[in-house]
């Protein structure tokens, strides 16, 4: 057998083993909601998935399995950084696959965004003020992710606006700590930068009144203070 045949065979075996591992880790993720110590287990699982993304050649199904973990594992202060790293790694080094599964990728991104909004509520943070700095650190991660998304305007322009719509819908239900709101708004502006203007106009007509006012304020501030300067 020629060397290249041996290499190809070993490569196929390696990919096969990685595929089994990602599938197995996904099955673990499905059980985390009922396990004791699930926060610790969730962090370990996400760390393993991230390392697999870095070290292994991945098929589309394997990437779907890994992203699926983000939709299954509880989002916590401990798991958030690894979840961000998985999404960042996917968009940096598996970008063509991400383009094929944009709805899944954005669902994962929105799950992190919604958690930040919930945890950034003033009432929530009043019970645990010591986590505010760490929470804002997590928001900076989502800001970097949205910045990376914005470099692929052609692929994301028509769908980014729906992330913005979901953002204003969730923000409408919470009173955010000012520092948290400022950091989140900065991240969402990155998506407004690439949002299709026709879709934005349509969105404004379909939002209910309360959410529409939040969106109007967000877009007004974006247009007046950020759009041409890039600064919040």
UniProtKB/TrEMBL annotation:
Residues 54-230 form the Nucleolar 27S pre-rRNA processing Urb2/Npa2 C-terminal domain. InterPro entries: Ribosome_Biogenesis_Reg (IPR052609), Urb2/Npa2_C (IPR018849). It comes from the Eukaryota. GO terms for cellular component: nucleolus. GO terms for biological process: ribosome biogenesis. This is URB2. It comes from Mytilus edulis. The lineage of its organism: Eukaryota, Metazoa, Spiralia, Lophotrochozoa, Mollusca.
